[in-house]
Fold:
Amino acid sequence: MTKPSIPKGTRDFMPADVAKRNYIFDQIKKVFTTFGYVPIETPTMELLATLTGKYGEEGDKLLFKVLNNGDFLKDANKEALESLQSQKLVSSISKRGLRYDLTVPFARFVVMHQNEISFPFKRYQIQPVWRADSPQRGRFQEFYQCDVDVVGSDSLMYEAELMQIYHDVFRSLGLNVNILVNNRKILFGVAEAAGIADHFMEMTIAIDKMDKIGRDGVIAEMLSKGISETSAHHVLDLMSKKTLDELKEAFANSETGQKGITEVENVFALTGESVPNLVFSINLARGLNYYTGCIFEAVLDATVYPELKMGSLGGGGRYDDLTGTFGMKDMSGVGVSFGAERIFIVMEELGLFPENTAKDIDVLFIALDDESHLTGFKWLYQLRQAGVACDMYPKATKMNKQMKYANDRKVPYVAIIGESERISGSVSLKNMETGVQQVIPFTGLLNTPVSDWV
Amino acid sequence: MTKPSIPKGTRDFMPADVAKRNYIFDQIKKVFTTFGYVPIETPTMELLATLTGKYGEEGDKLLFKVLNNGDFLKDANKEALESLQSQKLVSSISKRGLRYDLTVPFARFVVMHQNEISFPFKRYQIQPVWRADSPQRGRFQEFYQCDVDVVGSDSLMYEAELMQIYHDVFRSLGLNVNILVNNRKILFGVAEAAGIADHFMEMTIAIDKMDKIGRDGVIAEMLSKGISETSAHHVLDLMSKKTLDELKEAFANSETGQKGITEVENVFALTGESVPNLVFSINLARGLNYYTGCIFEAVLDATVYPELKMGSLGGGGRYDDLTGTFGMKDMSGVGVSFGAERIFIVMEELGLFPENTAKDIDVLFIALDDESHLTGFKWLYQLRQAGVACDMYPKATKMNKQMKYANDRKVPYVAIIGESERISGSVSLKNMETGVQQVIPFTGLLNTPVSDWV
Structure:
């Protein structure tokens, strides 16, 4: 018998981890709800026709494909079979894949249910996704995503409220973040000003790597993509401008660039004091190419956490054509996501989970004889009916064995019942932290909130 | 462009459905928690080595298998490929499958984490599972299961508390159920008394179909399995006994049968008045063959709902060897599950979801001009900070368009802001149900709980 295991890159979640993750999600959901976003859920499996081609060539390779059921070889591509061409064979033996992100399923959902929902449609979605990436420390093949989007309006009101959501969520979690904002139109303005509008995407992808490869690396990448040295340096020169006002002059001849500036200014005007940590950052590029307007990223405030190295805790932006690939045009949307895995790690490291997040029971009953066990079991139910989380060791076995169980479960109180307690209708309540032990009537315990127990 | 769709047997969940399902799960979790059960989660994909052979030959066929990534044909079974034998090929091109239930992953979890958990280990698990069944009305390929189990003790205390959990959960959901209890040892006693101990499993499977095929059908099935006519009639004769006392006599020569009776009696003694709807039912068999002691089923009380035809809303029992297949012996456990899909349908049909379960926002702001829109957006944030779920139409467009949006979102109140309201710092609050409309200062709105709005 081999030792059982689980697929690489996947995880079992122990009770404390489930509780902590749910704490994060509950805080997030509470904010989403006050902002008028409602939850949807989509199936784990989507048709490969829906998923394929949406995440680039690399993404297609990382899709988990589900084998058709039954005699799947019956309809298999014979030529691919004979020549052992795996990738060519796939579509004939697999028609379903696992959800790779929440954006494509959301687009598919909007198109399929367009007659059942009212636009602007504000939804959030918190579900796991799967990617066949090589697992690394902190990178898994199964992980939760948490997205909040609104589609069906191009109003900047939504950019502004999403910034308020970022601010409110991270504040509620106790995390100090800066929220970086830029605009794809500003980046296009930079490209136009540098005379490389036709290399906009290559420029954006290069800029996106600034943190990793530095100024020289970005220039080298631009050169390798056919951008001239003059233009590359012009781009970097523009990127050194820190304020919107400095850029305005440079965008004298770029209508798009000016529009981008106006959009970002409007977001600042709309958020005002409600999002004091919103920061314009021209270096923010966000590699994915479907964004068309404002782009965002939430990063830890390095002045507060100089020691903590962690990438962004979330990001997002405006996309003008979410659903076009499914045949529904002109559906503008904007959304952000929360990097639940990273938020978890950071909160764990900073000790930000409230002490009782992973609480098990409040009290464990310990019976010293069989009759006391029966009495204890009855009391247990009364206490549970009162909403107190409690439990009992299953047998009136040796005291130290029962106390070990209480310790293993990190129980704050034990209620010991022996003959004398039973006869007097009492328990010996022991505070496991202070060691204080006192005999109190069970009815007293029942009528006292746990927070008032000594 | 073809219309996008989702795999057969899967579903998108609209916001109201997510909210209702979460209402059920929240009620269930609240009870689980007071009884000292803690949540775990296991990966969506398990190794096929873990899953295969655990659900019978039929079950193996219903497993969704995930294709290995990359050049999966490289290691494919050449013989199976050439002879086009799909089932023979599977294990060489797929090493992962989707979770089929929560029991096998739990057993695997217990074995893998045996040194991190304390026994008795009480866990609950609420996650989707996947089965390649032919989809039918009410039967899906992806659906939630909700299991609660304790392993590492054979104490009947746990049988008793699981019955209390059934009782408390269904009461909290507003459903009147009967909880049927039987014991596999009693069924073995029946087999012994009828002289067919060697046909115990065949007899049990036949009895399990009583509701579907009737007495004659059960007898016919037993005959077809090599049970004599005399024995078959003897079984049915014993099955007609309604009380434990009647059975005791018949079990004079069956030690196992007597033990089963004692166990059920003890469960009744332990639960007492706390589970008034616990009913002994000798007809209860539960087809799956891993149960070894008490077995349970929760069914709607037909006297309360004579019109509602619905199978069991949950079931479970004692199994003496959960983890043996993974090399860990003598791990007795007992658990029950809740049929979340059926509970949802029944509650929907009976109108048992609280009115505000699927509530969206409390109030929608409607601005009549651009300046009022800016004012409204500021007020919106203040109201959200006060915990009120609210929203605003993205533009100061025509009143009727904004009112239509409010109606579509079933908003209970709209707060209209035109020039006069803005200047006086007020809104015209309209109750969408009563039609009552009144001008009130925004600060008044902010300081009044929504439940007190007129």
About this structure: Chain B touches chain A through 105 residues (CB under 8 Å).
